[in-house]
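[Target chain]
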Amino acid sequence: MPISNITVDYNGSTQTLPVENVVACVVLSLACLIGIPGNLIVICTILFNITRRSSTIVLILTLAAADFVVLVTLPFWIYSLTDVWIFGVLFWKLTLYLILMSMYTSVFLISAMSLERLLGVLQPFAIQKWRKKGTIIKVIVCILAISSLLALPNMTLEIELDAKGRPMRRVYSSSQQEIGLLLLITLAGFLVPFTTLMISYSVISKRLKQMTCQRRSRAGKLIVSIVIAFVLCWFPYHALNLCRVTSLLAKNSNAAFSNALAMIYGRFKNAAGALAFISSCVNPILYAFAARNFKTGFKASNLAKVFEQMNSSLKEKREKESNDHELRSESACMLKT
């Protein structure tokens, strides 16, 4: 017989917790312990050690700040998974808003990094305008504004309260509203950006194979690692969203199938949501692994070296791409004459 619940002592009383809640608490606790100090180190390293920041470094800084903001809300959710939410309806909605805004911001920032690499390969001269500090700041402001707007619809949802007036869960006015909001989150927060990432890296890979130098830079490897980690962490969450949407659509036509999907969604949504938070703490780990490539092992100063090397490698890459473009243009002119 499978174990489905765990009995624990909490605040002097005994209560039974579902195993999925226990797993979610463990995962969220690890995300807090690793992600909060990790992202704080990244932010401080870039702000205080990197004086001249490339557009990629600015995007990484913003990504770390977004991850840090969402991670500081986790202790409240860990408490609510072990007991109940006692922090009020307004704070409930505010934390949900910050989480959704951070999700959108993170995936859009990662998409921006990938598009920057794509433009650098295809249009080495046009990319110079993108990489100006003023331009990248405008891009980040636009990303934050769009993320803020996309997260707003969930703020309009009603909250179901228990007998003591404490929030328990979100309440949708209809199945259509739930389907619409779930599809918005999954389409805007995963499927569309994921498609953009796949197209970008397919084109980049094809282009690099045509070039004489096929060696991937440290910056390129790190960005690809960030993309892969984000996809792996968020895929189960969005897959379950689509599972829930399918369950709602099949409710009238196939009740048994709909109930089976609803059971899967209810059983694994907390664990999938907890895994999604891992994406907010995994990037500092990737930077730490990059820093360990130095012979002195991992030190905070080596993190600065990683970002400095990214700055220099991106600059060298831009110069090489510009030179290659000029050589191709001169060759084409010579052939025409």
Observations:
- The two ends are 82 Å apart (CA to CA).
- The longest strand covers residues 5-10.
- The chain has ten helices and four strands.
- The beta strands are 5-10, 13-18, 158-161, 167-171.
